[in-house]
Amino acid sequence: MLTGCQRPPAHIDIALIDSGQTALAQFSKYDIVNHGANTPSEHGTMMMSSILGVNSDSQLDPASLTMHSYDIGDAPSASDIANAIEAAVANNARIINISLGVRRPHAEIEKALKSAKDAGAFVVAATGNVRSLAPDYPARYDTALSVAATDANGECWTGNPCDKADLTEAGVDIPVSKSNGKVVEESGSSIAASETTRKIAAGILSGRIKDASKFESSQLDG
């Protein structure tokens, strides 16, 4: 864990726990390590493009990070999620993005989140597009940073529960890359979480964000 007297890290590891992604030309400069089958999918590709910022004016420097992609499919079980979190921790991920979830609590997920917390990792989890219902797991656990989507005016996107999230982030009409390379605008808590992951990564690399246990949302904006 960094302390105030240390310099910001020159390189960090980020984990994306999702479905697989297409190897787009936009991603070619990045060090992406695939864990699992990496069956290309729209969701995983869009989340990867959002985290890297390839369609934004805040693209992450390829030299500053390694992306670890854990393909757990489009309909993962709680055990799939937990195992991927544990693997990400073992691979020294500083940030773990989970833009998916399950509706019921599960001891394995809770245990894996504790491992991530003990390792000092940020676990950024989408609330799920569940309207006014309680967020999905793992977002509903206190050991994850739950994120819901707002629009450009800061208004809550009606598809997710902003009042039940730890923080909100722009997640409406965000440009993302699809599997065919086409850039489209998409909305949802998944994208809000991946946008948050990119901001946390930028904050860690700049030295503005140092400690997951002392993180405050105001640190995202400098």
TrEMBL record:
InterPro entries: Peptidase_S8/S53_dom, Peptidase_S8/S53_dom_sf, Peptidase_S8_subtilisin-like. Residues 37-200 form the Peptidase S8/S53 domain. It comes from the Bacteria. Keywords: Hydrolase, Protease, Serine protease. The keyword Hydrolase applies. GO terms for biological process: proteolysis. One of its GO terms (molecular function) is serine-type endopeptidase activity. The keyword Hydrolase applies. Belongs to the peptidase S8 family. This is S8 family serine peptidase. It comes from Glutamicibacter ectropisis. The lineage of its organism: Bacteria, Bacillati, Actinomycetota, Actinomycetes, Micrococcales.
